[in-house]
Amino acid sequence: MRDAEDVRDFLIDRDTRTFCIISVSFVEDILKRTFEHYWNIQGKEKRDEFFGSNGPLNTFSQRSLVAAGCGWISKESAAETALLRKIRNEFAHNHRIHSLDQEPVRSWISAIPAREEAWNQSQMSNYVHALSAASQETRYRMRLYCASMYVVGSTLARSKLIKEELPPEFRDEKGYDGLTDIEQALHRSYDKTLLSNDRHNAVISEGIGWRQ
């Protein structure tokens, strides 16, 4: 969770290119560390064997594919991860793309669930006001960040449940109370970033640098 907070703090007021590359690269790094943890990939020689240029887990696509095979990533999250990877790579390699509201990234971000819309159902008026005041670019940035953290939380939760020989979809309760500690912490992070903005009269969260 500390790493997620560090990423959030780093993204303050970053341009969209940096915002997207760093947000999605965090997902890739979490996948790598999950493999290191559960497959006991320790030491330089072993890391090179798995993550080196000729290793089976060298690329983001390889890591996500194998993680899905392990059950750490659900079918839905695997499709989302593929879209995040495309967006990240487009910003990394196409100098003509500066906004999430440009094709082809607009089509990819539009295919990701609009989790930011959940704030419209909030009982707190400042949540609803902040979202209604947001530009399309800001909404897309929120969507990408939420998707990235959703995949991170889901991967960590599912891998832990599988390790404990429980079904990866297992939850004690429905809704927020049924989420794992990791998933709840990431959800609280979304809320904190939105509320922090209200104190500074910004559009969305100063804490995550939504505003563009």
What's the structural blueprint in terms of helices and strands?
Elements: H1 2-10, H2 16-38, H3 44-51, H4 60-69, H5 75-93, H6 105-110, H7 125-132, H8 136-163, H9 181-199
Task: Give a verbal description of the structure.
The protein has 212 residues and is an all-alpha fold. The protein is built from nine helices and no strands. The chain has helices at 2-10, 16-38, 44-51, 60-69, 75-93, 105-110, 125-132, 136-163, 181-199. Helix 2 (16-38) packs across helix 4 and helix 2 (16-38) packs across helix 5 (75-93). The longest helix has 28 residues, at 136-163.
Task: Jot down its keywords.
single chain, 212 residues, mainly alpha, 0% strand, disordered C terminus
Number of E strands: 0
Radius of gyration: 17 Å
- The helix content, as a percent range, equals 55-70%
SSE pattern, N- to C-terminal: HHHHHHHHH
Overall pLDDT: 83
How far apart the termini lie comes to 25 Å
Determine the strand fraction and express it as a percent band.
under 5%
Provide a count of the helices: 9
The low-pLDDT segments are 193-212
Q: What characterizes the major β-sheet?
A: none
Structural class: mainly alpha
